[in-house]
Amino acid sequence: MKICIFGAGAIGGLIGARLAQAGSDVTLIARGAHLAAMKRSGLRILSGGDEAVVHPRCTDDPEEVGAQDHVIVTLKAHAGPAVVDSLQPLLGEGTAVVTAMNGIPWWYFYKLEGPWQDRRLESVDPGGRQWDGIGPERAIGCVLFQACEMVEPGVIRHTYGDRLILGEPDGRRSERALALSKVLIAAGFRAPVRPRIRDEIWVKLWGNVAFNPVSVLTHGTLAAIAGDPGTRALCRIIMLEAQAVAEKLGVQFPLDVDARIEGTAEVGEHRTSMLQDLERGRPMEIDPIVTVVQEMGRVVGVETPCLDAILALVRQRAREAGCYPA
């Protein structure tokens, strides 16, 4: 099985390194100083007090790699439309594209039974660029539960998490999904194939849609936001609005909103990825995490007034910082 990690930063680098250690045929697509460091000295993984150096095959040119069995895209979701052309050399007749990103994926309505089947989401896929250029039939969903940080080029610190969940848009336990699950498990991940991948996507998004933008506005950690009665209450309202949108789409939540907030609080003094992006002047994942929920609410006829307000504020903050387009 040929596997390519496209966008091998912190999370992608961890996945790629573990696959390489397990003997998989894996190639990492990276760029800049990070790629140069991996070529020069290998990829160093710091995890739980252990340190490993791996020398995976890596390049910035997909033409060198050719068609793959699985392409695991670990870019920030807002970068997806811009790399459709770059992905083309990796796509063979049966290539699966695994969307290992935060937020709602561009293929969300593909094979979703009901009145909105095959609807496209403008907020995460402007003009349907990924839908047309990749094809939703290639998509395998993936929900990540790892915390990683690139501390310097070629060096990744893995803080916690070894679980990632896979799932086909139509719920099948397909051969391609099961084969990838087996390889990831052999590399040390917990990687089940679940029949309701959209439920899994929403459970993770549920916390992010509220805590991420609130963290940008307050600069608070998860523990600080959950521990303050005012910001905790605001997050709860936003999460309930998002839950109403999801349930209108048929999503089943396995826990209630207060249990989900407690789970977020237990992560502790963690700065959200959206806040880290603001602090580092990087483009922020506002659209795939927040804007898309607003768009879906409009589609299904569910009002989201608190989410709308927090979205307006976080967009303005991000624009002022140069981290979101005008």
Give structural notes:
The protein is α/β, with parallel strands linked by helices and 326 residues long. It has helices spanning 10-21, 32-41, 84-87, 129-133, 175-186, 197-218, 222-227, 229-248, 257-266, 273-279, 286-300, 305-320, and strands spanning 2-6, 25-29, 43-47, 50-54, 57-59, 68-73, 91-100, 139-152, 155-167. A 9-stranded mixed β-sheet has the order 4-3-9-8-7-6-1-2-5. Helix 6 (197-218) runs antiparallel to helix 8 and helix 11 (286-300) packs antiparallel against helix 12 (305-320). It is globular, with a radius of gyration of 19 Å. The mean pLDDT is 96.
Keywords:
326 residues; alpha/beta; nine-stranded mixed beta sheet; globular
Summarize the structure.
The protein has 326 residues and is of the alpha/beta class.
Structural class: alpha/beta
Tally of individual helices: 12
Work out the radius of gyration: 19 Å
Mean pLDDT: 96
Strand content: 15-25%
Give the helices and strands, then pairings.
Elements: E1 2-6, H1 10-21, E2 25-29, H2 32-41, E3 43-47, E4 50-54, E5 57-59, E6 68-73, H3 84-87, E7 91-100, H4 129-133, E8 139-152, E9 155-167, H5 175-186, H6 197-218, H7 222-227, H8 229-248, H9 257-266, H10 273-279, H11 286-300, H12 305-320
Parallel strand pairs: 1-2, 1-6, 2-5, 3-9, 6-7, 7-8
Antiparallel strand pairs: 3-4, 8-9
